[in-house]
Amino acid sequence: MACKIPYFLNPYEKSVNFTNFWGSNKQLLSKKSFSDSTTAQKIRKAIKFWQDNTCITFKENGPDNHFLNFYKGSGCWSYIGNVSSFTQQDISIGAGCEQVGIIEHEIGHALGFFHTQSRVDRDSFVKIDTSNIDSEMLDNFDKESPSTNDNFGLEYDYGSVMHYSENAFALDENKPVMTSLTSKLYQKTMGNRVEPSFTDVLMMNKLYQCQDKCASSTFKCNNQGFNNPSNCNKCVCPGGFGGENCGYRKLASNGSTTCGENLQASTEWKSLDRTVGNDRYEVTDEVSTCHWFLIAPVGKHIEIKVDYLGRICSSGCFYGGTEFKLGNFTKTGYRMCCKADYENLPTMTSQNHLAIISLYTIYYNQQFQIKYRYID
Ligand SMILES: [Zn+2]
Hints:
This protein has helices at 37-53, 100-110, 198-207, and strands at residues 3-5, 27-32, 57-60, 67-71, 76-78, 88-93, 126-128, 178-180, 226-228, 231-236, 241-242, 248-249, 261-264, 270-277, 283-295, 301-314, 320-325, 334-336, 347-349, 354-363, 365-375. It is mainly β. β11 (241-242) and β12 form a beta hairpin. It is found in: Secreted.
């Protein structure tokens, strides 16, 4: 049974007309004003994500000279970058925002990120149907200019944690506000709030020039992973890749050795039916993820026919989904979570001899059923 679950989407975000960074020591001070300790725990997890994957550090309950004040305001919002005129810079984690991925998004703003669909190059990637947006809300879709937006040469990523979902601010929720101009299979990739994407993490590291820290490291990362500035002898890997140096398939996030496999394709169709998650209707702080590598002989291509996707349907595959990476492994692939979203479930072909499938969930469970083979 499929069920649609709406989620709360940042309607109160403010933006300032300049972007600034935090101190040259790259340390943000934060102060929690939560009596609700479960939310405080989630905030600490979100802070830890950025801290563990960049050179930025946070100090809880530091001195009162310009600090980030997490508080339970109205909605989820943040200022963009360091607003130096404040002593106390508020970041609101209101009702419905108490989720690690949403908090990671808000911290992304506080660190200097705009929304992805505000990128200066967004008109090459999404079409925005302004007739389906309340005129008072239109400024949420403002586009930045070359002087206000630097993407450090990184490609547009539909799966960025800073991207809105396809029907954010829609007057008619059954019609998309944003349509991908490059593939309709990216429609549900937009709106990720599970955790920041590889591109998000790389861009944050570029914004804060974190990579200088590991410039002389001899520890090498494969598959376009990069040295983790919080520990140069570790790598930050594109999704699906893991091991010490991103050279292998990443193991299941829950430590399971049976979830996720390397599978050799043949010229005959083979079936694959997998589920990840549990039977509890509650959002978890930890993402359960497993990855499958479908491998063809070099020079051949993987063909995938999707037979089923479920069980939780959500806008932006907010609670979980299946991701298919068929070419560029550094960018988020096609994310799908619900059979009912498709008139016909897709058949897709990889650009080279490897296809990566990632199945992830933060709520109940998620399943895919596919057939795969290799073709010329
Ligand atoms: Zn936002």
